[in-house]
Design goal:
By secondary structure, the chain is mostly helical. It contains seven helices and two strands; from the N terminus they run αααααββαα. The protein has helices at 10-33, 38-42, 53-72, 86-101, 105-108, 129-154, 161-165, and strands spanning 115-120, 123-128.
């Protein structure tokens, strides 16, 4: 049995981004209910040398759009990282979901052997499609997504595993 590169990427990314959007809505409601300045949560970190919540969301969405674009063999769109509110982050997520869902299975399936080159951390990297998807794109996406979740949970937002995984 072969893997569908499309099924392993676009629908998974869109689903988890919807979960992230719902988590951010709960965080915003939490801030309002507890009279916490939203900037406090948006700037929260798990540890001083880690990136804050807002950057975790930006990077997770960057990995989502980069994943489908690279697998489809198209240029990755660039978005400015200017979001400073929950509403702006949620608008970014909506834009990325729409972008991810704009790809068809025909554009992504068969990309297992596609040459993928990218620059990360000042380092040139090259992959074939399947190792890129399973060993780089998805792990990075999930890392930043779960870090955003963990920042909010650590700061008292009442979210749990079902919020992260979502409902089937």
């Amino acid at each position: 049995m072969t893997i569908s590169m499309y099924q392993a990427s676009a629908p998974r990314l869109a689903n988890m981004l919807r979960n992230l959007d719902a988590i951010l809505a709960k965080a915003q409601a939490h801030a309002t209910a507890k009279k916490i300045d939203p900037a406090v949560l948006l700037g929260a970190r798990l540890f001083p040398d880690m990136l804050p919540l807002v950057k975790q969301v930006q990077i997770a969405t960057d990995h989502a759009k980069g994943c489908v674009a690279r697998l489809a063999g198209v240029e990755v769109p660039k978005f400015e990282d200017t979001e400073q509110s929950f509403e702006e982050l949620q608008a970014r997520i909506a834009r990325i979901i729409a972008y991810v869902e704009s790809f068809s299975a025909a554009q992504i399936d068969g990309s297992e052997e596609r040459d993928i080159a990218l620059k990360a951390g000042g380092k040139e990297m090259s992959f074939k499609g399947l190792p890129y998807l399973l060993g780089y794109a998805m792990p990075n996406f999930y890392f930043h997504l779960v870090t955003a979740y963990s920042i909010l949970r650590h700061n008292g937002v009442e979210i749990g595993k079902r919020d992260y995984i979502g409902t089937p």
